[in-house]
Amino acid sequence: MTDVLYRWPEAARFGKSIPKTKFYEHGAVTSAVRARFVAEVDGITWAYKLAESTINLPASKEVPEIQVLVIKAKSADVDASVLGTIDKAIKQPVIFEIVSTQGTRMTATLKAGVPGQRYYSTEWSQGDRRRPLPPSVSLSSLYAALLEPILPTTIRPGEGLSDLCERLASIARLERDISALARKLRAEPQFNRKLELRRVLKAEQARLQDLTNATTAQSTTKKN
Question: Could you tell me whether strands 94-100 and 103-108 are parallel, antiparallel, or unpaired per DSSP bridges?
Answer without folding.
Answer: antiparallel
